[in-house]
């Protein structure tokens, strides 16, 4: 359905009226024959018909297109009263900005936010209503901390509520202790695995160093033996030289 034409200030061009509901176009679509409709109106029409309601030309949902830009601009510039005019709002603004205004309008009728309360009240008066609403939440005046949500709750048993609260706190503490215990055990296991892994790596490195040292000692012994052999050969050569 479109916007009630009675809300608009001044003349509204015939081309900006829905061909079905005859109100000012809301979320408009245009057929190939250039007749314009509210989206909700034309979709509802095409459920039962397959032609344009104005000239009876065959149309399909897939053929519908957005309104021409110049027509959309003309539509957006139209001035109209807020829908809360009957409650006292005197705002007149463009169609383009009317939705934004009405979402924030102080004269809008909105439901009380307290659970169980069915009162509809103007937004500007909501704070005053919440302060006295019988469904408002408040703490027990006896100091037990219980949140009173309705008139029946004022007769609650403070001792029972405190006992329940204590049990809840105890359960929560036990859960937290268990969580901390599991987390600590997990960390210790992780550190233990890491240390075992490091120990294995260090042991492998030590074995590799021992192997390298053994090879070096063997090479040293071989070099020393070769040196002794070389010295003996030199001494033998010296003796032979003297004999000659």
Automatic annotation (TrEMBL):
Coiled-coil stretches: 192-243
Q: Which residues form the RING-type domain?
A: 18-56
Q: Which UniProt keywords apply?
A: Coiled coil, Ligase, Metal-binding, Zinc, Zinc-finger
Which residues are in the TRAF-type domain? Answer: 101-144
Zinc fingers, TRAF-type, are found at: 101-144
Q: Which InterPro entries match?
A: Znf_RING (IPR001841), Znf_RING/FYVE/PHD (IPR013083), Znf_RING_CS (IPR017907), Znf_TRAF (IPR001293)
Biological process terms in GO annotation: regulation of canonical NF-kappaB signal transduction
Write one Gene Ontology MF term: zinc ion binding
The entry's protein name is RNF41 ligase
Q: Which organism is it from?
A: Eulacestoma nigropectus (wattled ploughbill)
Q: What is the gene called?
A: Rnf41_1
